[in-house]
Amino acid sequence: MEKTLHIEIENIRGISKMTIDMPLGIDVYAITGVNGSGKSTLMMAVAPKIKRPVTFAMFKNGDYDSTSSIKYQIEDKYEVWKPINGNWCLVENNGQIDLEGFQEGSITRGTRFWNTTYHSYKRLLHIDKSDLVEADKFISESLSQILHGDIYHYPKLYRIDRRKAKEKYNFDGVPYFLSNERGTISQFSMSTGECLLINLLHLLYNLVIRTNNKKHKLILIDEIELALHPSAIKRLIKFMKNLAKKYNLTVYFATHSIEIIRDLDVNNLFYLEKGANNIVTCKTPCYPAYITRDIYMHDRHDVIILVEDDLAWNIVERFLKNIDAKRNKLIKVLPVGGYENILELHNNLLKERILGSKVKLLSIIDGDVKQAAEKKLIEKKRNGQWTHIDKNDVLFLPIESLEKYLKTKLFDNPDQNLMREIRDNLFENETKIDWFLNEYRKNIENAKKEDLKKNGVAKDDKDYFVNGKVLFNVLISEAKKNNWNESNFRKELCELILRYDSFKSFEDKLSKILKKRL
Predict the structure, then answer these.
(1) Taking a C-beta distance cutoff of 8 angstroms, is the pair 81, 91 a contact?
(2) Which of 65, 190, 212, 440 is the most buried (most CB within 10 A)?
């Protein structure tokens, strides 16, 4: 099972409390949120655990007080750190949290500033060219590829050996230089984007590439998009994804870049929101439309429909196709997240008039939360919130959710004909129509054993067979083994179910609402 870094932050930089679980999977993730939501504070809190010796130097006087604390936990091991007489001290622990990696990227913070002083900077403006050696190929080619889309843009990138930089220029690091027709300039005189990336690539090269070190590392990159063109950001994300897989890296961006947010899986997006009493909460998985609150590019559409997730997106798209809803009109279906996210975004888009007056807005929510969503809408309206939502513009899918529908049809009350349809169309190599049951039960048993190991007690059997997510994951896992693309599999499964079952009454209702609204 994938390890998670659990962090609890109290009374630091205007945050009274923040709790977050950061997966340590081999992948690229993003911490996002509006300005002041706590992204940089979180990065600064994690950074000491990936530096040796442990240092909280990035926290300045005024960032914390005697009530501040940070707790780190991975599995059963934990550490609690608090400031005592101005110094951060380990006050409680159960084992040691060991992480390797580095933090880099911010315009105003990061490791490149630790070794730069005004005097060393001035000395580097007048370097002896005989001290220069060619930059490592990985750095020059990667810098070229990320910033310009080819590997040849920086053929004359140089560096000074660390020892010589220290002895001759009083610089504790490895400075880089670019030679062109105008002369030789240091990285500190290059563009901010070039300087940021050179430092990042240098760290990656020396800690990972050069030594072929594949021990797990955590990489934190803060606000790097402020200095990069959107196309360079997209290339950087692709670059880091490939590097993560090859060298066993967990990469976190602190960002509000639309390019980064849209390029990552929704399960890899962590949205921070600062609420009452300066308590920061984290929402995940989270969809780009909810995070950015910025769908102005969709104002060319006639109708926007907000749904919970990709499964709901597939279902609603099929319903729209069945009723020929897109004839002579543009309809956009946007996955947003849970029903509260949907309704909050629905209200905000209308309140702030982001879509303009001609675009019509509907929300279609999974049927399993119908009562909860209706109750929440009434409560919010009573308290003067969500007042811009017309309850007639909120619909509920005719099935609880795809996962629960499948659990009911395949496990609770087995439908042999549907089982056969799924086997014949999607898993033609399976001999039995109920081939998935053994794997489903095995996963449930593993979950029970995990609870017994962690808590000393397991839940009732019925509590493990609640929402069908485990069963759905069994189907997804087997589909991948059969060379299915996950997105295509979800789409085909949705279409199969909507062909198999009749949902005409819902389609009629949706058709009437669309005609009425347009």
Answers:
(1) yes
(2) 440
User: pTM of the prediction?
Assistant: 0.71
430 in the same domain as 378? no
Alpha-carbon gap, residue 290 to 310, rounded angstroms: 14
Q: For residue 184, give its domain range.
A: 112-202
Confidence at residue 216, expressed as pLDDT on a 0 to 100 scale:
93
Which structure tokens are listed for 174? 């490895």
Buried/exposed 284-302: b ≥16 CB within 10 Å, e otherwise: bebbbbbbeeebeebeebb
In the predicted structure, residue 112 carries a pLDDT above the cut 50:
no
Per-position b or e across 123-150, b if 16+ CB within 10 A of its CB: bbeebeeebbeebbeebbbbbbbbbeee
Asked if 165 and 116 touch (Cβ cutoff 8 Å), the reply is: no
Residues 6+ positions from 487 with CB-CB distance below 8 Å: 310
The answer to whether 248 and 219 are in contact (CB under 8 A) is: no
What pLDDT is stored for residue 450 in this prediction? Answer: 81
Per-residue pLDDT tens over the stretch 371-428: 999 999 999 999 999 999 999 999 999 988 888 899 999 998 999 999 999 999 999 8
DSSP 3-state helix, strand, coil percentages of the chain (rounded to 5)?
Answer: 45, 20, 30
C-alpha dihedral over 478, 480, 486, 490, to 10 degrees? -30
Strand partners of residue 346: none
The helix/strand/coil state of 383 is coil
% the chain with pLDDT above 90 = 42
What are the pLDDT digits (tens) for 150-208? 998 888 898 888 888 777 777 777 888 888 766 788 777 788 788 888 989 999 999 99
DSSP 8-state secondary structure symbol assigned to residue 106: -
Judgement on whether residues 131 and 61 belong to the same structural domain of the protein = no
What's phi and psi for 173, nearest 5 deg? 170, -165
| Phi, psi (degrees; rounded to nearest 5) at 485 | -75, 135
Could you tell me if 260 and 322 lie in one domain?
A: no
Cα–Cα distance, 154 to 177 (Å, whole number): 10
Instruction: With beta carbons less than 8 A apart as the criterion, state whether 336 and 342 touch.
Output: yes
Taken as a whole, the chain contains a residue count of: 518
Interval 264-269 mean pLDDT: 89
Contact 177, 76 (CB under 8 A): no
Q: What percent of the chain has pLDDT over 70?
A: 92
Q: End of a domain among 283, 313, 332?
A: 283
List Cβ<8 Å contacts ≥24 apart for 383-390. Answer: 385/347, 386/343, 386/344, 386/346, 386/347, 387/347, 388/346, 388/347, 388/350, 388/351, 389/343, 389/346, 389/347, 389/350, 389/363
Q: Residue 58: which CATH number?
A: 3.40.50.300
Q: Give the per-residue pLDDT at 106.
A: 53
Q: Are residues 408 and 389 in the same domain?
A: no
Structure tokens at 426: 């999607």
State the average pLDDT for the chain: 86
* Band (295; pLDDT cuts 50, 70, 90): very low
